[in-house]
Recover the amino acids of this structure.
């Protein structure tokens, strides 16, 4: 069986936050399919098509990844490093979505090749608005990399 | 032999120069032999009989004086007496008596002169010795002579004063036994070095006192190898060592403390980071789910339930602001200053632009004067103006016409910038609370705020080396004055000249 195509990978350990983010993304029926990874390791398994996600293919990459930084097991920056280090995953847009606005996270995130950095506002209205706009941009405005981008050269 | 021949020629005694078994010697031959003999003796002046003659000092001097006299006086006197007799001035017996008497007189005179000169030399030496002895006795430095077997031979009284031992006690044992056990090896090495003829400077070791304590000594020593002696001068440097040790100890403590501070700073940073990340998430959830509740179940909730949910959301939002402001404050405290020369007027304009939302709908009279250029971190100084102006705007809200004034004056050659408003002011009674974190002088309902803004302003100015103070009167407005530290001086003076 072919696994269902996933448009957005949300990497978020906090269930409540994940629910709020999903709600914001589903507003206006932007995305049909969102996969939630609850820690860094699960996210890497998904992106590198291994373990529980052996059936996936690299060229079937998500349109973008929303990545929290503070994660159990493998933290967000490490996930980012490994994704951007590998030619098969490098082209996947990764947007950091975090409560932190610490400068070192911004610096490190962008240095590792993050495609965007969104700070979650405390105010839910603002949060919903921002996440919705990010979804709009990456799903509707941005032209995604063609599948062969993800094949090993 | 040559001398004999020459005297024979001089006195016309052929038997002197016609020694039996030898052929007679001519005058020139005899002179040559004599010169040669003397030359051979003087060829090695440091050896044999001549050594005494050539030595400097009293003995050499005397030998040099007496030697020619011993040779020449009998020769001349004998010759004179002989020639006098020959010429018929007197008979042979008279001649001999005259020779004897004149010899006695001249020799006695020579002996007397020599004794007098010796006496003078010795008196000088005694005086010098006496002077050295006095110095030896009163010297504050410890002076000593030790033999190559490791015993003190002579010590000055300073030793007794410093170490408490009598000189007899010190001389009774090898000196190394008074040295601190840990310093003995080094001391023996140093002594061995001296014995090979090398002098030593600034050697340090510890000597045991009679009371059992140890004193640090600083040594200069020099050997006298011919006599197998070491001469040394030592100084008690215990106090200096103690001070050095204290300084080292203080340094160590300082290092420890700064390491502790660094650790505390890192911890604070970790704490801030965790606050920044972890405290926001639950807040967003409180806000988010109450919002969702309101949206999804709004119709089922009555007005009171909706009002209460609104309260929940207000609380969450306010706490979010508090966290943001606190993080900003701690960031300001940690951040390093990027000092540039900045025109304060431009910074005020930037701050006002950011407050546009607040200013647009109100009647405000701005009185912004010419402000100086100062050395400061522009981003942080902009924040100072943003906070002060936002306060001024907030507390003038009840006024029909707000008047907000920004200007500067020069005090003690320093630019003092002020932000003045005609707002509700406050009582100076509470002015000491103004700049504390979370300190507020107004009720949240009247004037919302976090109580962190002025604390941040003060922190920024303090980092620049400046300060801030306020003057206010309840219901008559408030004024905040600040200096921006040493950087404001030249610009302020330049401003004054204009």
């Amino acid at each position: 069986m072919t696994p269902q195509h996933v448009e957005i990978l949300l990497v978020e350990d906090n269930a409540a936050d994940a629910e709020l983010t999903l709600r914001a993304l589903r507003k206006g029926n932007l995305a049909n399919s969102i996969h939630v990874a609850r820690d860094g390791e699960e996210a890497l398994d998904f992106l590198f098509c291994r373990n529980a996600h052996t059936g996936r293919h690299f060229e079937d990459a998500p349109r973008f990844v929303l990545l929290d930084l503070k994660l159990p097991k493998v933290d967000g920056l490490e996930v980012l490093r490994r994704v951007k280090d590998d030619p098969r995953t490098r082209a996947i847009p990764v947007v950091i979505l975090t409560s932190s606005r610490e400068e070192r996270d911004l610096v490190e995130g962008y240095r590792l090749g993050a495609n965007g950095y969104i700070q979650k506002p405390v105010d839910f209205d603002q949060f919903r608005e921002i996440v919705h706009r990010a979804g709009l941009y990456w799903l509707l405005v941005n032209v995604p990399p063609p599948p062969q981008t993800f094949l090993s050269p | 032999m040559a001398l004999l021949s020459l005297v024979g020629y001089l006195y016309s005694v052929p038997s002197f120069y016609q020694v039996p078994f030898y052929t007679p010697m001519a005058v020139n031959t005899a002179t040559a032999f004599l010169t040669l003999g003397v030359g051979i003796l003087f060829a090695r002046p440091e050896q044999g009989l001549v050594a005494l003659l050539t030595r400097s000092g009293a003995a050499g001097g005397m030998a040099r004086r007496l030697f020619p006299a011993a040779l020449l006086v009998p020769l001349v006197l004998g010759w004179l007496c002989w020639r006098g007799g020959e010429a018929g001035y007197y008979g042979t017996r008279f001649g001999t008596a005259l020779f004897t008497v004149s010899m006695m007189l001249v020799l006695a005179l020579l002996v007397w002169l020599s004794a007098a000169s010796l006496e003078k030399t010795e008196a000088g030496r005694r005086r010098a010795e006496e002077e050295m002895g006095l110095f030896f006795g009163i010297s504050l430095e410890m002076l000593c002579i030790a033999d190559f077997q490791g015993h003190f031979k002579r010590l000055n009284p300073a030793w007794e004063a410093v170490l408490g031992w009598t000189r007899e006690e010190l001389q009774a044992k090898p000196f190394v036994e008074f040295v601190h056990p840990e310093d003995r090896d080094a001391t023996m090495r140093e002594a061995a070095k001296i014995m090979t003829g090398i002098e030593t400077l600034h050697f340090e070791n510890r000597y045991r006192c009679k009371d059992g304590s140890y004193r640090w000594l600083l040594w200069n020593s020099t050997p006298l190898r011919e006599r197998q002696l070491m001469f040394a001068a030592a100084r008690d440097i215990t106090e200096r060592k103690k001070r050095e040790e204290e300084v080292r100890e203080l340094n160590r403590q300082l290092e420890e403390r700064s390491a502790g501070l660094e650790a505390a700073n890192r911890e604070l940073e970790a704490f801030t980071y965790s606050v920044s990340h972890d405290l926001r998430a639950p807040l967003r959830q409180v806000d988010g789910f109450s919002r969702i509740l309101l949206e999804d179940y709004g119709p089922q909730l009555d007005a009171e339930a909706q009002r209460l949910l609104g309260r929940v959301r207000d609380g969450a939002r306010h706490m979010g602001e508090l966290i943001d402001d606190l993080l900003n404050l701690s960031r300001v405290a940690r951040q390093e200053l990027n000092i540039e020369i900045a025109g304060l007027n431009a910074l005020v304009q930037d701050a006002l632009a950011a407050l546009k939302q607040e200013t647009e709908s109100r009647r405000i009279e701005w009185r912004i004067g010419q402000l100086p250029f100062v050395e400061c971190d522009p981003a942080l100084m902009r924040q100072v103006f943003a906070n002060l102006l936002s306060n001024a705007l907030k507390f003038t809200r009840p006024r029909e016409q707000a008047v907000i004034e920004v200007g500067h004056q020069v005090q003690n050659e320093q630019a003092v910038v002020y932000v003045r408003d005609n707002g509700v002011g406050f009582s100076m009674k509470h002015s000491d609370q103004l700049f504390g974190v979370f300190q507020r002088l107004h009720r949240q309902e009247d004037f919302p705020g976090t109580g962190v803004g002025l604390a941040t302003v003060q922190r920024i100015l303090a980092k620049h080396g400046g300060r801030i103070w306020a003057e206010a009167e309840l219901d008559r407005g408030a004024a905040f004055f600040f200096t921006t530290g040493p950087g404001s001086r030249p610009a302020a003076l330049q401003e004054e000249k204009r």
In short: The longest helix of chain A spans residues 124-141. The helical segments of chain A are 15-26, 40-47, 76-85, 103-111, 124-141. The radius of gyration of chain A is 14 Å.
